[in-house]
């Protein structure tokens, strides 16, 4: 009875949680921690969305069980979103399912379509559910790079030639969490052709579809003709409409995969609270100014952060999309490793970031910085970082 459970043994300690616990303890002590670690939006949803939630919640018949796959109006709203945003036609009945955030959708689909011993191709570094959702389901993971260059395609070809059993599923996530890398439609065209040739399902995580900068909208893999033969895509209202805690997401695309996800979900949950689903309809169908407003705000925060941290002596590449920056450790401090660096930044500079090693071994040497504080707080974080770097003898700090 003392032996650890099989699936728990396959889950390593969640190093990001270690930094989060330190942040919480510091705040309990009354310290003013600038939290750039968790991707938790600091903005509210649009007023009309909150109004719809309250309106429906007041109805006496709104508090029973909902529909596991999502109410029909919400599935239609998501199909309409794909039509106007990507020009993709979806059948709300067979090609759309509502999930409790994209994270739950990915984990549930993993349990639906994965057999013990299956091999899954997943990016490294990547958001943890991209790997551990399948590890929990009993699969083995073969890592591929996140960088969409020829090294990526070489890694895919080697995986198909040398992995036993042959991989059956490939996870892609662009804009990437944590690296913020992006791809164009030509990348997806090549990927769909590769998947058909190799008989591999593609699961695309498009959670940051609307947070793109410099005038380059992010594409959907489903824009590729024939993509629905091999792919499903996950999206979320969390960042687009600042509704992270509402847990509203979607899976759309291949009918067979959507049916599998829907069937397993029917055994697990009765769907989200109906008033939340009604409010999600209001978000997708109503005024869309919030989408542009949020994008502009994160864009400005990105520019402020890059400039301020650069002046502090920490050069960070400007992300093209998402709400994150993937920041290499200052060269003088690389020896510390991302976890120890994150801990010191928290305790000595009162700035919380996420250690890159928490996203996979290839994340070592980086930290993820979330742009979830206002511009004033970002500048304060830069000042704190400057003092910390000076204390460590980093000589590149600007005057």
Overview of the molecule:
The chain is α/β, with parallel strands linked by helices. It is built from 13 helices and twelve strands. The strands form three sheets. Strands 2-8-7-6-5-3-4 form a seven-stranded mixed beta sheet, with helices on both faces. Helix 3 runs antiparallel to helix 10 (274-285), helix 5 (101-113) packs across helix 9 and helix 11 (289-311) packs parallel to helix 13. The termini are far apart. The model has no long low-confidence stretch (mean pLDDT 93).
Structural class: alpha/beta
Number of strands: 12
Order of helices and strands: HHEHHEHEHEHEHEEEHHHEHEEEH
Strand line-up of the largest beta sheet: 2-8-7-6-5-3-4
Distance between the termini: 61 Å
The CATH homology group name of the largest domain: Type I PLP-dependent aspartate aminotransferase-like (Major domain)
Radius of gyration: 21 Å
**What is the CATH-assigned architecture of the largest domain?**
3-Layer(aba) Sandwich
Q: Could you name the CATH topology of the largest domain?
A: Aspartate Aminotransferase, domain 2
Keywords: Aminotransferase, Transferase
GO molecular function: pyridoxal phosphate binding; transaminase activity
Enzyme class: transferase
Cofactor: pyridoxal 5'-phosphate
